[in-house]
Each structure stands twice: as C-alpha cells, then as structure tokens.
User: Fold these one by one.
Assistant:
Number 1:
Amino acid sequence: MKQGKLAAGQAGADDVAFWTRPERKPLPRPPKPYRAQTTAERDADELFGGFPTDVIADAMGVDLTTARRWRRGATPIPPIARRLAQVMLHGDLGAIHAGWKDWYLKRDGMLVGPDGWAFRAGEILSLPLLQQCNRGLEQTIERLRRVEIQADWVSGQYVEPRPAAQECACDDD
C-alpha cells in the first residue's frame, strides 16, 4: 500500500464532505380549503372556547373521544352537559338556577356576585356567625338606650322626644 492512497473502505474527510447531500427541508403543507362551520361546531366553539379537549373531558366526566366529538360537532351536546359546561368551565352559576344569574365561581374558588364583590368559602360560612353577633350588638345598643333614658328620668333631665314633622300632602290653593 502506497502512502498517498487509502485502503478499500476508508474515506478521507474531504471525500465524505463532498458526497453528503445537504439536508432537505419538508415543503410546507398547502392550506386546507375553507369550510364553513356548522351550527354544531359554532355552538361547541362558543361553549368550550379555548379549553383543551382533555380539560373538557375531565371537567365533564366523559371520555376523551366524546369530548372530541362534541368539539368538532359530530355529536350533539346534551342539554344537561351544556349546563354543566357553563358551571364547570366558565363558573356561571346562572346555568343552575335563575336566582344565581350574574354570579360566578372563579377558578381559585372565589364566589363573585353581580356587583363584583368576591367571597371565599370561609367568609360565606362565617355569615351566620356575623349576623348573630350583629343581632347581639343591636340588642345591647337598645338596652343601653333604655338605661340612658331611665338615668335621665331619675335625674330629671329626661326630655320627651319630639315626633318628626309631618308634611301635609294637601293642596294649599
């Protein structure tokens, strides 16, 4: 074997670089032809919005294929599932009962009223206690007023409260 030549099966670095082809990039896919959405697809888009199909399936308690069928409009969404989706995905409590119209549950568990006030579950559970405390304070204030009136009566400083002035609704022609 001569020094300038390579043995069979051996290639030099220049030979490999010369024979390798440049990497080919795949051609972009042509755009899909426009197809108008069906009513069922529009309804599903409106109801499910941008939620992923796995989130929809988990929230609704259905199989992933069912959620996919609902999303693409292949299967109609049952009315009870629509209501459940309104509550589970959007937090709209008006879907349960008309009395809860404009009330929402946020993802962090906060209950938001129509006026924008937000409450945690613990705050709502404490409302009966707060009402009971409020009634007790009102009763205490009323007792203190009676004691004050009695003290003024005993000391001779009691003044009979004047009735509020009544306006006459008659015509003065």
Number 2:
Amino acid sequence: MLGIKRLLGMIGGKLEKGVKVCLLKGPTNQYVAVKMHGISQATMSRVANKVHLALGELRKDIVKFPSSIEELMKAMAAFYKN
C-alpha cells in the first residue's frame, strides 16, 4: 500500500507547495481542511481536483490487477489478512 509521502513524491512536481503541506498534515475531509488551513471551500475544491488529476495520471503505475489465478489468490489472501 502506498503511503501519502510516497504518493507525494510521485505527483509532487504537479502540485504547488501549499497543496503538499495540506496533504502532509494528514487525511481529513474538505470541511476540516478548510477550517484548519484558513482557505476557502472553493480553493480546497481546486486543490482536491488537482490531486485527483495528478493521481489519475499515475493510475497505470499505482493500480495493478492480477494477471494470473495465482496472483489473484495471493491478492485475495492479503486483502483478508489485513
């Protein structure tokens, strides 16, 4: 599973510094982020959209589907193990 710091390393060049700082403070909902950082809801929505688009560009590198029955069974076991 990818951590937030690793994801930021992958998409960091596509995001402004303020966006990175907001993400590093931890996962939260938009309302809490708006109040915490003193930004408008509109700004937070734009930030979320930029992150969404940057992650979307990496989907082929991040999202992997099993290519064999063995890989599928291993992924299923790992899912239920955690």
Number 3:
Amino acid sequence: MEWLRSLPGRVAVAYEAGPKGFGLARFLVAAGVMWLVAAPSKLQRPTGDRVKTDARDAAHLARLLHLGQIVEVTVPSAEQEAARDLVRAREDCRGDLMSARHRLSKLLLRQGVIYSGGGTWTGKHELWLQRRVAAHLRHGTGHDAGHRGSP
C-alpha cells in the first residue's frame, strides 16, 4: 500500500473480475484508492490480438482505464459474496449427486439390474438399492469378489 501512496499524482487501479473474489476491491476502498473491477467479457480487444500475457493484459487495462472505457462489475459485499459462494457450492454438490446417480444407474443397467417399482431416487428406490447391494456383498458376486479381504 505504501508503494501505491508513493506514486506521484492520482492513483487508479483496474483489474479483471476473476475467481479470487472481490477482497482486493474492498481493501482498496478502505484505503481510499480509486479502483475498477472490469467485466472480462466486456473488455474491448484489438482485432487479431490472440496472444494473452499478464504484461499485455495490464497494458491494455491501463489504456482502457485512461480512456474511461472499462465496463465495471458491481462489487458485492463480503456477506453477498459469501452467500454466492454457498449457492455455488450447493450447485456443485447437486451436480456431483446427479452425476453419481447417473453413473450408478448406467452401471446397474449394464449388469441387467432394472428397477420397476415406480419413480427412481425415492425412499422405496433407495431401499431396493440397499437390498441389491447387500445381496451382492453376501453372495460375493461381481468383479472384485475375490478381493474382499484385501485392503
């Protein structure tokens, strides 16, 4: 922060919004520094400019900042950002659950195990699955039956 304050003239900071959150923006606000968080999808890129490096990106952001052509994103409060993180985590878990269910369904289908007792992924379906797995383990059927005693 001292380095920023040591610079001559007015200091402004711009950076692209990204996965690291908005903590830097909130820090800069508290320090009284002018800042902008740029929407990456709205940044004007020169035609044919396909090489992306940190140095080029920084120079490009500085030019756009100087010209006043940065489209800002709204910086959420720490509480809003935490809520967004929670929602994203829930969506990730839900996606993981759906993927696991899909893999299990396809595994059972390949084994010729078909559920016909109504809707899937209900309490009744879960009991049916538990019985199938218990029977499978009791009888030692399946690919790794000989490996049951191995760690």
Number 4:
Amino acid sequence: MNERRFWRLVRRAHTAERDETAPIIALLLGLLHQEAAPDVIRFHRRLAEVHRRAYRWDLWTAFRIVLGEVDAALFSDAVSWLILRGKRTFRRTLVDPDFLASLPVERVDLAAAGRLLGLAHERLTPSHDPDADLLLIQQAISEALRVPRSSPVPPGELPSMDGESLRARYPRLCGRYPLDGIAAPVQVAPGRRRDVVSDA
C-alpha cells in the first residue's frame, strides 16, 4: 500500500462522517475489514512511517500550548488525531505547527485517536473461537505487524520555552491560549509513548 492509497482510506473515513474522532475510527476499521490481510499489514507499516514523520519537538510544543502538560502517550495520541484530519491538514501542520490554532483540539478526540495505532491489530484479530489458541494468534499478529522501534523522544533539542520565543514561533497559538505553566520542561517517560508494534 503506497502513501497515496493510505491517505485515500483516511479521507474516505473522514468525509463520510463529521469531525468526531470515534466515528472516523469506526469507519476506518470498517474499511480495513474490506482489505486483504497483506494490505492491512501494509497500511499499518505506512501508518508507522507517517506517524514518525510528525514526532517532532516543534509539534509537541504546539500541542503543549493548547493542552498544557503533554506526556509522550498524549503526544502520540495527538499525532494520531492529526493524521485522522487528513493529508492536507496533516502536511500543513507539519510545515507550520502554528496552524494548530485553526483546529478544534479536544482531549476526548485525542484519546479516541489513540486507538488508531492498534487498528490493524483489531482488524486482523479473528472472532473468538473457543477452540483456538488466542495467545498464539495474538503473537502471530504482533509479529506480522512488527516495525522498527523508534525513539521515545523526538530527535534534536527541545525548543526554547520562554514566553517571548514561543510568541515569536507560535503567534496564533499564543494569541488563542494562555502560556501559564508552559515554561516547565517536557516530562518524557520512556515506554509511555503509545507506539505501533515494534521490534524488541
């Protein structure tokens, strides 16, 4: 599955409903049920690539301005939520994270978006069969979906978090959201990132 087809699936799920994340996730899962297992695996690997592309300090900082403290798991959910907005919004926000000020960011939607990284696993898990060895099935699925492990933190250095620097870098976000408490360093807990299945 190339990236064009990946984004086409996301667009089909997004345009068929309103902007609520939970229905988009449900529709995307339904679309994956129409795909053969090898294509579901390719979708998962493409998702991992796209997700890593957004795992950057400048975007993490933008979400911190909106939400306050954002740990690794919440930022991972936020990236998944941004992917579900579609290719155009995703790419525009990566070019200019201050564009996030134009989007309706709600914690409930970010939490629902966290399910995205496990969607292929859900699709590949068969209906319950009392005679099946579910543990072996789950292990086989996890092995099929395995991708290279990524760092729990973005590359590079954390941007300056003083108010003047933030207002210069994110004028629209800082005009919309208060900066109270934003100067504290990001707390990254290794292992807390909600990641795709990865190599050990």
